[in-house]
Amino acid sequence: MTEPMRWELADGREQLFFSLPGHTPAPVADRRPLPPRGRQQSQLRFDHQTGQWVVIAALRQDRTYLPAADQCPLCPGPSGLTSEVPAPDYDVVVFENRFPSLSGDSLFALPDITGVDFVSAPGSGRCEVICFSSDHNGAFAQLPLPHARLVVSAWRHRTADLLGRNGIQQVFCFENRGEEIGVTLNHPHGQIYGYPYLTPRTDQMLRAAAGHRNRHGTNLFANLLARELSDGARIIAHTDLFTAFVPFAARWPVEVHIYPNRFVHNLTELDDVELDAFAEMYRDVLQRFDRMYPTALPYISALHQYRDNAEQRDGYFHVELMSVRRSATKLKYLAGSESAMDAFISDVTPEGVAARLREV
Fold first, then answer.
1. 48-70 tens-digit pLDDT
2. Catalytic residue among 147, 157, 189, 318, which?
3. What is the separation of C-alpha 44 from the centre of its chain, rounded to a whole number of angstroms?
4. Rounded to the nearest 10 degrees, how much is the dihedral formed by the CA atoms of 178, 182, 186, 191?
5. Which tens digits make up the pLDDT trace of 311-332?
6. In which pathway does it act (predicted)?
7. Is the pTM of this model over 0.85?
8. Known binding-site positions for Zn(2+)
């Protein structure tokens, strides 16, 4: 893939245009009267009772909320006055979030938490928006395969870039789709976070993987994949290179994991053939989601990526897709047991969901 075209928005934010073969982006000057960005716009605070960092980002209260389609800031803006993408059209575009949870690219180390009652630090890191298409009414599942592959290439590019930056400990590419999930913009898009710490779920899974290696001498994630393949009851789709399945202990009403059949830490370690296969498998699963019910399935897509270092050596790249829809007319709400105790109670069987996804 050729390098993306770099552009700059009115307030100095970086923008990258990724294009299909034969397409040349034609951005124009961003002429919006945007206020200058503050160097630090959020704060990290340490929760001693859980051992976790919390991001305090009050500026996000001002972000754009469900605008009308003709006022969408992610649609092309050929005048340079109306959009986050000042161009007559685009294929895939990535830019720094105007309302970031984390910002600032300088070298950063978390403070010592011992002996201090209230530990805080600047909310350093990186938050980017990735627009999958210029079509406001589109969806990832509807993208032609070469276009879906371009999104994967953009994810890979941003992963490599952010992993190489000082102070970034984890790169997380994700998508929230559907107002039921809580999206504030309906245009098909995702986000990319560069965290200055390991997120709690990643830390928890790596601890479980380290314990498994100490006991058995093998990789936990590879073992889980092998067991799902051997059992077969929850497999959704399987090729020579990738496998999609509903996990044995699924938490969400609809939950599917996609694994490469070969161990890699992140997207940068997949070769071109594997990236092609990943784009095809990923799109296939999302298309199955949209055939489950009369209305499009709201979902969260989470790309779990790891560094190739001693701390994260057992981290196995995979995607976890989940939805709160538990029937055609009902949603699952994370109430007392889930929200207060992180103790999930499922209303459906993983085997039943897998059978349904195979059927569609």
1. 999 999 999 998 888 888 999 99
2. 189
3. 21
4. -100
5. 999 999 999 999 999 999 999 9
6. Carbohydrate metabolism; galactose metabolism
7. yes
8. 72, 75, 136, 187
